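It is worth pausing here to work through a concrete case rather than discussing structure prediction in the abstract. The textbook approach is simple: state the sequence, then state the predicted structure, then interpret. We follow exactly that order.
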Amino acid sequence: MPDRSGFLVLPWPGVGSEAEAEVEVSEGRGDMLLRGGALLGAVLVICVTALRRWIGGGVCRSGERQDGKTVLVTGANTGIGKETCREMARRGARVVMACRDLSRADQAAEDIRKSTGNGNVVVRHLDLASLYSVRQFAKDFLDSEDRLDILINNAGVMMCPKWLTEDGFETQFAVNHLSHFLLTNLLLPKLKSSAPSRVVTVSSIAHRGGHIDFSDLFFSSRPYSPLQSYRQSKLANVLFSRELARRLRGSGVSSFCVHPGVIRTELGRHVEGWFPLLGVLLRLPAMLLMKTPRQGSQTSLYCAITPGLEEQSGSYFSDCAVKEVAPEGRDDEVADRLWRESALLVGIKDTC
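Step two, the predicted structure:
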């Protein structure tokens, strides 16, 4: 175009085209980055979804209704216990929630009633740190309930400090094993009269490496280890379930033991107490790498309601399938001795 002097001013050769080319290249790179980011995000979502599904493990796919049946779950106001109750209520069962904290239990029960439309969900007080409470609960249950089709020994404590119950027993062994041992034995008449019936005891993969120290069950003379105490109590669950199945053979009452998986529940609160910094650092990974309470309840539900499992009585389950128990959990002599020692400690006869 001409300037004021009358000369025609032309653009410098290549300047406009190079600038435009640079803009185009820049836009192309940005577009590629956006597309690459979107693709990476999609791959990440798919991978996380697949990981969460794999971590979730087995699913109870039985469509069996539980109308007319009575189900009792200990430790039922939170975690997998609450989700087990919710699913049983959804299937039409009368659900008895045995809990220590009645206020929280009432809230949990109301939530279950509303979410399932089943009003036949009741709360009963049970403190597993007290043998008196266990006996009182069992007496009230036997007096007031017509039947007991499924007993789920779900409650437990994990790696707590060295506490003693009112009976003088180390807390983990008392709550996780002895009280459930007593409760089950006291409720056997109702279980037998309701046969076919089932007992499901929640253990853990932590039974591996456990050892029943009959000379010092309560860590009275040896140094207390929260982990070893927990392992001992979970091994006791496995051995109890196995021996219960043996003693009840032919009675119509089946016994199963389950590992629910590693779950995001309040059970691990004492672990964070021992290692607070570790708890903070692992909180986010735990969101991805642990099961939800609903996922954790699946194996308990599977063993409680799946038809045709009677032949598997005494077995150990995880992810809704029979799994091999640790060698220490297959020792029938130790199982028999543990039964006799437990009966002596809680003050009942040796037989079923």
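Step three, interpretation. The chain has a mean pLDDT of 88. The first helix runs from residue 15 to 56.
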